[in-house]
């Protein structure tokens, strides 16, 4: 396939790029405000563009040739979007719609894989979340993502694109760096325990969350690019299956995996943070499972997969 990826140098985008390059028949066009690391840009079948999706000239260059699938991953993340809602509107909503509408004009009904988020769901969440859970986002980030979901479904209905929107849970374990994500602690705990450092948890031991390794996330994005369109629900969006776990169980499983018999964890719950990221109830995802999307299988497998990406 010929694939276009926005946010290609980001955490998920860089792993998706590597996975696509494992097939020598794939051609990639990568767009990000930062150039990719390593020798990716030197490959003949890779075109790298440095720029932002809100720039029309950049979008035109990005969409200049025919393609099979557009992976749209670029976004202003949750915490940063909440601090600067105007920037979120410009990037996460307006530029995103401009990009996808331009893609529809340049290629006849292209497959668009859109990385949405569980932040579109209502807060507080009900006792159990399933495909009927209402959309009542508690943050600007989720609000703009929900608006794009609806717009893509409408574009699909009109025959402009073949939309596949996937709502991502917490994806781990991200590098230790400023990310703008309020949920960064879910990745930071991996780094701390692997290097035998102390960790302050901003959620309680009994906080529950939905998690997925970046390896499984990439597998689901690739599946989204290739699945038969009829397998998607009419909404054109699925909440991905995820492993639900307690924070204390996550800490113990990581400690066991890295052979730490004692860990230095201090529990300092932040009530607002726990409400957003530590109060996630049992999750049922029949539409995603029917379409062939998967979670990591078990908490231990998820931890092993995530630790493999921790430098």
Summarize the structure.
This protein is α/β, with parallel strands linked by helices and 311 residues long. 38% of the residues lie in helices and 18% in strands. It has a seven-stranded parallel sheet with strand order 3-2-1-4-5-6-10, sandwiched between helices.
Description:
- It is a single chain.
- The protein is an alpha/beta fold and about 300 residues long.
- It has eleven helices and twelve strands.
- The model has no long low-confidence stretch (mean pLDDT about 95).
Shape: globular
Helix content: 25-40%
Uncertain stretches of 5 or more adjacent residues? none
Number of strands: 12
Average pLDDT for all residues:
94
Structural class: alpha/beta
Helix and strand topology:
Layout lengths: L1 E5 L4 H11 L5 E6 L13 E5 L5 H7 L6 E4 L5 H6 L1 H22 L4 E7 L22 H18 L4 E7 L1 E3 L12 H10 L4 E3 L6 E6 H13 L10 E3 L3 E4 H11 L7 E3 L3 H7 L8 H5 L8 H9 L4
Parallel strand pairs: 1-2, 1-4, 2-3, 4-5, 5-6, 6-10, 7-9, 8-12
Antiparallel strand pairs: 9-11
Helix pairs in contact: 1-7, 4-5, 8-11
Keywords:
311 residues; 38% helix; 7-stranded parallel β-sheet; alpha/beta; 11 helices; 3-stranded mixed β-sheet; 12 strands
